[in-house]
Design goal:
heterodimer, A: 371 residues, B: 518 residues, alpha/beta, Rossmann fold, six-stranded mixed beta sheet, 17 helices, 22 strands, globular
Chain lengths: 371, 518
């Protein structure tokens, strides 16, 4: 019966996420205190670890690149009214497409040829992995949340099989491919900036960051500025109105999931071509799931996704520094802190909204009374 | 109203509200509303959609809490914070949308929440005896052991009333009770209400239908824009006076129109059958023709196949049998979707505006292109032509007097009437030959009704063929040149407007076959 409380636009987009973040950090501080460390020192470590040096910033943005791809994937599906939990699997299988192209063309063709073909490879493989759940949802009504979760497991098992039995570099133990040829390496940010005469410490940050920004711009144009995006949003918000307007919801389901999978599939441009230079077991490392939180917090808008991807990148990078320097806070505690951020920014968003709206209402009332 | 200091103070009103004030954010839903209903009377509460009637009654029933003001029952102040409090104070409410568990029996529904113990048996037996007595006293016979889903709507409503009486309600609030009833069922309801009144109960009837107020109430309170604008004895007023109070200016209650001059047949429907997803036939063997320059009205109690017929014509549902011929093409055989039907000159204003006609999260201008988003005028290469869409929306708003004229405003922020004007504007803007309109004025205020009705007559006179489906008989009688009556998926009769009366149509709606139709 109660509609969500109304806030001014700037507070809705700027203040509310900050209040949520502060609440999450406050609770994290309590946990850190209980573990016997100083919350203040932990916070400082988190900040300096993620933003304190050029190298750390590079790492933060490198992680953020992964989250941008998966976050955009979740957002596109969201606008079509679908909850794509399968970003992890689509990124993983998409990585197979990127990796095969890189193994095939790396060292044989120049980078400017490898890059578009690799993007295509990642997009096609990622889209293919999203296609089956999409088709099942569109034609058979199988719930996409269930099927995409299943396809994460199937994708993971498939990749393990391929890496262990087919793609493994002969004569080694760990299930990973040979290294890509050098022309399939994403140019590092430090190298690119050096060419422009800017000195930037080496880090895994690479050209894929720019590709991700481009993908964000593309998503914005597609969703908000084309007739296809219009049909997508109509179908996502009101299926009956879509049918009334002559838009076919099943078709939109398939099309949007193809785009969603393609975006997730591009994660490997950053992770494999940009950093690992080979296909290896479980390289998405949960980025597909973080993408859900990133999209949620970024209001499913590319600009918001960029900001929240950077935040989660900072948490990932700062968190590993934290666990390194504070032995009592291990890797798992960092995941707990991330979880709290997701909880407050996503699930509990409306908890903070009501008190904030009350504050605004009181302020407005006072202004009215004075005026 | 009441002079408390007077010597000869009459019995206090059964329900009295003093200076009730309620805001929802920026919306001032109730402004210092005072209201009193005398014991043993039927008191009408009338006003347009959004006038604050429902808010007021929801405060009385404990769904909302007033920001200010007090509620008195029999002269005693009561504090109502929940429906439980309201029930304890002797207030019962029958909602527009019934609050019944469909797969429970009548008896189980009535005792729901007041079972009187952990085990059902004793409670049910006690309830049965009491209900049989109530049914005798008030003429509220209902089969107690029938599952509610199997009852006709009129009887379901009776169950709701029984529920309230079983909870010892002395004050009964009915919110738009006749929306789902045939005229005959409505008449039965009114008889029941009079009986309740004569036994000393107090009835508050919330409605926007002037006819009902005149037919059954003793006194009536009129609300406009959150405030009470008048209270009169029903016997001393007229529908015209009430309408003017509701709207705040003089209104035309009857639609002015000349005789129809039907031309060539534009749409013909042959032996149409539509099945729902459970494979039950909802439209059965419907045939009719629609000609240029006429308005054909489809009357019927809601749920008798009109919605399915309309959706089949618009291309939203595929019929299982039959043909729909428009411009020499069979839309059924060719399986044309709504978009291609629009291209052939078939426009559609859907029955349920908010569910189908608009996307509530979109701005007005984004809703302007719903169904037409791939027209060349709205696109520039691969991209939508935003300035053109904006200009089109501004033009439609000006032409149809939509207020506020802000294309960027979310459609949900407009009143029902302005939303409907926008939908109508969108559909007639492309100059269709055939216009299908479901519930042209559902949830639309009187001022806008007048505007929309005039527009529809003008379209007819311009040679369009209009098919209007409405559950408001008055509207059908006011607009249509020819009336088709549907019952249980069939057309049970066709009546020329000149021969149609409310009684005749009502009988046909209830399934009694009309003349002149096989």
């Amino acid at each position: 019966m109660n509609a969500p409380a109304k806030l001014p636009r700037w507070a809705e987009l700027g203040l509310l996420p900050l209040v949520n973040l502060a609440a999450a950090l406050l609770l994290s501080g309590v946990i850190v205190k209980v573990l016997g460390e100083s919350p203040w020192a932990a916070l400082k470590l988190l900040a300096s670890g993620s933003l304190g040096s050029e190298e750390n910033i590079g790492y933060t943005l490198y992680y953020a690149t992964n989250f941008m791809f998966t976050g955009l994937a979740v957002a596109v599906a969201y606008h079509a009214g679908l909850f794509n939990i399968g970003g992890e699997g689509q990124a993983y299988v998409g990585g197979l497409g990127v990796g095969l192209v890189a193994l095939w063309l790396g060292g044989r063709a120049p980078f400017l040829v490898v890059l578009p073909v690799a993007i295509l490879g990642g997009a096609v493989f990622g889209a293919a992995w999203a296609f089956i759940p999409a088709w099942l949802q569109a034609r058979r009504g199988s719930h996409i949340v269930i099927t995409t979760i299943m396809f994460n497991f199937i994708g993971s098992a498939l990749m393990t099989y391929l890496l262990v039995n087919v793609l493994i570099k002969p004569g080694q133990q760990s299930p990973e491919t040979r290294e890509f040829g050098a022309t399939a390496f994403m140019p590092a940010a430090s190298d690119l900036l050096a060419k422009a005469g800017i000195d930037f410490s080496p880090s895994p940050l690479n050209l894929a960051f720019v590709v991700a920004l481009g993908a964000g711009a593309l998503v914005w144009v597609l969703v908000w500025r084309t007739r296809w995006g219009y049909a997508l949003r109509v179908a996502g918000q009101n299926q009956a109105a879509a049918v009334y307007a002559g838009i076919s919801p099943p078709r939109i389901i398939v099309q949007s999931m193809l785009l969603s999978g393609a975006l997730a599939g591009c994660l490997a441009l950053n992770e494999l071509m940009g950093s690992q230079h080979r296909i290896l077991i479980d390289f998405p490392g949960g980025a597909g799931f973080v993408g859900i939180a990133v999209a949620l917090m970024g209001r499913n808008h590319p600009a918001g996704i960029f900001l929240s991807a950077v935040l989660f990148g900072a948490l990932a990078q700062g968190g590993s520094q934290l666990s390194f320097d504070m032995p009592k806070i291990n890797r798992d505690m960092v995941v707990v802190i991330q979880g709290l951020v997701i909880l407050f920014c996503g699930a509990l968003e409306n908890v903070m909204r009501a008190p904030l709206a009350a504050v605004f209402a009181r302020l407005a009332g006072r202004r009215e009374a004075e005026g | 109203m009441l002079d408390e200091g007077g010597a000869a103070v009459p019995a206090p009103p059964a329900l009295e509200l003093r200076n009730i004030d309620k805001r929802f954010g920026a919306v001032h839903a109730n402004r210092a509303v005072s209201f009193a209903a005398a014991r043993g009377s039927i008191h009408g509460l009338i006003g347009e959609n959004g006038a604050g009637k429902s808010t007021l009654m929801n405060i009385v029933y404990g769904f909302h809490r007033a920001d200010d003001g007090e509620i008195l029952v029999d002269g005693r102040r009561v504090d109502i914070g929940s429906p439980q409090d309201a029930i304890a104070a002797g207030i019962g409410m029958v909602h527009q949308h019934f609050m019944l568990v469909e797969n429970f029996t009548v008896l189980e529904n009535v005792v729901l929440g007041v079972e009187g113990g952990a085990l059902l048996r004793g409670g049910l037996d006690r309830a049965r005896g009491e209900l049989e007595k109530l049914a005798r006293d008030y003429g509220l016979e209902v089969p107690l052991d029938t599952v509610v889903a199997e009852l006709p709507v009129g009887l379901q409503q009776r169950v709701e009333i029984l529920k309230a009486l079983y909870r010892r309600a002395e004050i009964l609030i009915l919110d738009e009770p006749t929306a789902v009833l045939t005229p005959q069922e409505a008449e039965q309801l009114f008889r029941m209400l009079r009986l309740l009144r004569d036994q000393g109960k107090t009835v508050v009837l919330v409605t926007h239908k002037l006819r009902e107020i005149m037919a059954v109430t003793d006194r009536v309170t009129v609300m406009r824009q959150g405030a009470v604008v008048g209270e009169v004895a029903t016997g001393t007023t007229s529908p015209r006076e009430l309408a003017e109070k509701m709207v705040g200016r003089a209104v035309l209650l009857r639609v002015e129109k000349g005789p129809a001059r039907p031309g060539e047949t534009l749409l013909s429907v042959r032996d149409l059958e539509v099945r729902d997803r459970f494979d039950v036939a909802r439209v059965r063997g419907v045939s009719f023709e629609l000609r240029a320059g006429e308005i054909v009205g489809v009357a019927g109690v809601s749920g008798n196949g009109q919605s399915e017929l309309l959706e089949a014509l618009a291309g939203i549902r595929m019929p299982s049998r039959g043909g729909i011929i428009l411009g020499g093409r069979d839309l059924v055989r060719e399986q044309l979707d709504p978009r291609r039907r629009r291209a052939l000159g078939l426009a559609h204003v859907p029955e349920d505006r908010l569910r189908m006609g608009v996307v509530t999260g979109f701005s007005a201008e984004d809703n302007t292109i719903l169904g037409y988003h791939d027209r060349a005028a709205y696109n520039r290469g691969l991209l939508l032509n935003r300035p053109a869409i904006h200009a089109e929306c501004e033009r439609e708003m000006a032409a149809h007097d939509v207020r506020p004229a802000l294309p960027g405003l979310r459609i949900a922020a407009f009143s029902g009437g302005n939303q409907q004007k926008l939908v109508l504007a969108r559909e007639i803007d492309v100059d269709p030959r055939v216009l299908l309109i479901g519930q042209p004025t559902r949830g639309v205020d009187i001022g806008a009704i007048e505007f929309i009705h005039k527009k529809l007559i003008a379209l007819r006179d311009a040679g369009k063929a209009l098919l209007i489906v409405s559950v408001e008989l008055e509207e059908i009688l006011g607009l249509a040149d020819r009336i088709l009556v549907m019952n249980a998926g069939e057309i049970v009769g066709e009546v020329a407007r000149a021969d149609a009366t409310e009684e005749k149509l009502g009988l046909m709606m209830a399934g009694v076959k009309g003349e002149g139709h096989a």
